[in-house]
Here is the input.
Amino acid sequence: MINMIQNAKDQVAAVVEQAYKSAIEHGQLSAAESEIRGNVEVPKDTRNGDYTSNFALAGAKALKMNPRALAQLLVDNLVLDGTYFSKVEIAGPGFLNFTVNDKWYGEVLSAVESEGMDYGTSDMGHGERVMVEFVSANPTGPMTIGNARGGVLGDTLASVLSKTGHNVWREFYVNDAGNQVDKFGRSIEARYLQILYGEDKVEFPEDGYHGLDIVEMAQRIYDRDGDKYKDTPSAERQQIFAEFGVPYNIELMKQHLKRYRINFDEWFLESSLHNSGYVAETVDLLSQGGHTYEKDGALWLRNTDFGAEKDECLRRSNGFYTYYAVDIAYHRNKFIERKFDRVIDVWGADHHGHAIRFKASMTDPVLGIDANKLDFLIMQMVRLVRDGETVKVSKRTGKALTLNDLLDEISVDACRFFFNAKPDTHLEFDLGLAVREDSENPVYYVQYAHARICSLLKMMATENVSVVPMENVDVSVLEDEAARDLIKQISLYPEELRLAARDYDPSRINRYLITLAARFHKFYNADRIKGESEHVMNARLKLADTVRSVLENGLDVIGVTAPDHM
Here is the structure.
């Protein structure tokens, strides 16, 4: 749980505060009437310093002084002995710029050595129980490319939250009840009867599922049972087919997601909410709270009472509960019955409006839910391209491209890396780029850096040279810009994990890894390792091995392998 960025910031704040108190003790300053609160930041341009404090600017008004004059008094009273800093300089209107020393660089490398794959972890979440619900595709057909993106974003966000001290639960919500399942049964029935009597003899429902997967499902049933259901009443036959098809598709989804390196803690069935009476109970609760009304035989939630732009139907005139009512019951189950502290739903861009209205519904006091504990990660659409052309069908099957088809064509590593792009931007997934083995392909570029280090270690081992512990490393020889920039990048990893968790943006890890790989390649090309004097060789090899460890760590978070050769 070592964060050398935060440690340095805390130390800057402490030494500046001590310098301020020292100036008061020496009679150089009078204490301000109120507390002076300065900030410590990492400047964008670190050529003039690695950390900067605006304490003098913040305190100038309170002390009625020129900020540069105050800054000079602070510098005169600063004690840097034993700290992470070699010097401090005054810049601009009164900023204090601190430059880190060998002690700080050494402790960055020591932190990775001591923590290994735990490097970057924190207790930011304080054990908060967080459910991340993602994918949740209808079990009436194969998973789409949108599901593929949502799967990676949800899974990687869950990993990031786990790394930062949250108790994370991954959940897939299975819509195994309602209109879509009824339509699924009717669609299979029509294809089954077409097998028996011919396509021209049986009309397919216009609103049915027209995919070839339905044809294959009907054929599967026919191959197993023949014409057994020829004389079965239609409603019963549809139910039988749906009860066969839904579990079959769920199992297929599990297999495909496992191939995609995604495993859920629970596959929660919508039907369980209906069968237990929980949906009816939740709707009754809303009615008792006085926020529902009847119109044309249907029951409506007065969602405008909670700031939404329109009311929502909870129960249709035919007595069936709407998806909206079931969703409220499901989320009540998450918070009230299973007592999650926070819930994050990963939804597509087409659900943005629904998310806003739904969050308004969660403020109904009768539900007993803190709506601020419900969050959404809304992801934008995906466009697959090859040679500049939009791709919608599989080269192998000629059918609409599904997640499993994509994994037949592109490696899981590439899919996970590419789909873990910034959620709030449209993603153009270049299939040609994803299979290239050069520096233009970002996942290849990052993995190559890891493999390059592994090859280096193996080569050095043939000459009886191994990575030494930090106590035997002379950090002072890592003094050139390439080496120091690389160590600074290593130090950023805990902060990137923290920000990825805070902002629900797991794509920060992708960007971090690309930069780390780039800085390693620059260092490796600038600083020779083999053939150098022993203390230089040891220090540079230690730095390379530290990069290897952090690359493996970051790739593991996003579910991508770290190969030892390529």
Q: What stands out?
A: The mean pLDDT is 95. The CA atoms of residues 530 and 537 lie 7 Å apart. The longest strand covers residues 167-174. Residues 234-259 form the longest helix (26 residues).
